[in-house]
Structure formats: structure tokens, C-alpha cells
Task: inverse folding
């Protein structure tokens, strides 16, 4: 059952990774958080997920029953753009793929499969897990903080190379420009930060009028990179 739920998480059909089973008289029950009412539908499931579901049904002579409860008060109603002009790869609570203009999350099951190993999004899932773990260790600041920060904001780090490869694959299968969000944390003041150039091509990528409160302030269309302003002062 856990493998099946993991397959649903890998497509972002469900967005919670902790599952608490409640024993019922004739089975089990658990709460799942989905981006859409029909996210769990088989049309959004990978072949491996379908195989796992069928195996459980046959082994235990049971059926899955999904019952809609309500909108989660914390996550609220999701709004999913069907025809985004461009996409951003950035870790988020619902999906690491965002509409570039509204920043609304786009569940992975909305795009064609990206993994070279099969019909899945394993490449994106692996990057996402690596990023969240490295970012978490950087925030803790206990061990090798400088190394973790370098992985997050150095364009040539192994972590960012992995993410950029994911972006290239997403753009290949969707035909939609896909930008990688490059972390930025430097204590050198806003003016110096604004003078930063694109770390790949060296070109100007500052968007005039953007502020510290904007999700991104830098954008290089040539290199498909987006980044934030580090300092508010």
C-alpha cells in the first residue's frame, strides 16, 4: 500500500507523504490531500501505480473507494493553469512545477512523463528530494553550512545541474519554456546584488521594477534561469 501511495505522490496526485491508517470493520481508511477532486483518477496514474493498485485489489479481494470531504483550510482551493506561457522548477508544498506568471502549482501528472528510466517523473522526484534535504540541512546551520549553501546557489553545483537537466527535459516534452529557480543568499547589500550577471552567460538579467518581495527579480531567457533578490536593503 505504501508503494502505491508513493507512486501517487510521485505524480503529485496526492501531496501528503505521511499516511495514517485507520482500521475499519471491513478495511482501512486514510486521509489524502489532492490538488484536484479527480487527481487520484486512474488517467493520472503511472503504469506502475496502476499495477500496484491492481495487485492490492487482487491479493486482498478489495476495492478502493475515494470520497471527497472538503477543501483543506491550510492549502485552500488550488488554481491550475492549463496553458501556461512558461514554467518554473522550484520546490513547493504542492508541486515543484509552477506557472511562471501566476506561480500556481502544476501537478506533474499534467505533463508528459520525463524520466528516462520509464513512464514516471523519477528524475524530478529525485531532484526535489535532494533539494529539500540539502535546504533543510542548510537551514539547521550545524554542519557544513557553506557546502550546502554552495549546492543551493552555485549554478555549477551537482544539485543545480540535476535540476537544470530536469528543466530541459520538461521543456522537451511540453514545448513550454521552463526556467530553473536559482537560490540566492548573499549578505552584500541590494545594490551589489542587483548588479549580478547571469551565472551562465554573463548577460544582464535584472528585471527593472522588481523588488525583494517578488518571487523572482532576475530572469535570463537564453539560459532559462530565474533567481531572487537576496537583500531588502
Result:
Amino acid at each position: 500500500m505504501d508503494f502505491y501511495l508513493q507512486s501517487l505522490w510521485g505524480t503529485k496526485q496526492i501531496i501528503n507523504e505521511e499516511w495514517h491508517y485507520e482500521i475499519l470493520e471491513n478495511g482501512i481508511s486514510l486521509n489524502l490531500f489532492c490538488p484536484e477532486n479527480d487527481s487520484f483518477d486512474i488517467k493520472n496514474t503511472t503504469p506502475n501505480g496502476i499495477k500496484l493498485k491492481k495487485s492490492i485489489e487482487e491479493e486482498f479481494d478489495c476495492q478502493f473507494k475515494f470520497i471527497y470531504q472538503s477543501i483543506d483550510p491550510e492549502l485552500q482551493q488550488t488554481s491550475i493553469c492549463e496553458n501556461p506561457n512558461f514554467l518554473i522548477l522550484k520546490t513547493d508544498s504542492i508541486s515543484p512545477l509552477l506557472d511562471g506568471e501566476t506561480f500556481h502549482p502544476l501537478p506533474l501528472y499534467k505533463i508528459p512523463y520525463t524520466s528516462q528510466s520509464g513512464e514516471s517523473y523519477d528524475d524530478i522526484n529525485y531532484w526535489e528530494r535532494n533539494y529539500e534535504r540539502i535546504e533543510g540541512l542548510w537551514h539547521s546551520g550545524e554542519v557544513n553550512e557553506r557546502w550546502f549553501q554552495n549546492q543551493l546557489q552555485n549554478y555549477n553545483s551537482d544539485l543545480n545541474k540535476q535540476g537544470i537537466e530536469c528543466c530541459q527535459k520538461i521543456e522537451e516534452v511540453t514545448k513550454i519554456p521552463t526556467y530553473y529557480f536559482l537560490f540566492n543568499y548573499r549578505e552584500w547589500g541590494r545594490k551589489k546584488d542587483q548588479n549580478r550577471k547571469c551565472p551562465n552567460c554573463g548577460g544582464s538579467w535584472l528585471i527593472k521594477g522588481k523588488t525583494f518581495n517578488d518571487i523572482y527579480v532576475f530572469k535570463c531567457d537564453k539560459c532559462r534561469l530565474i533567481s531572487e533578490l537576496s537583500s531588502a536593503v
Remarks:
- The longest helix spans residues 122-140.
- The chain has two domains: 2-60, 87-227.
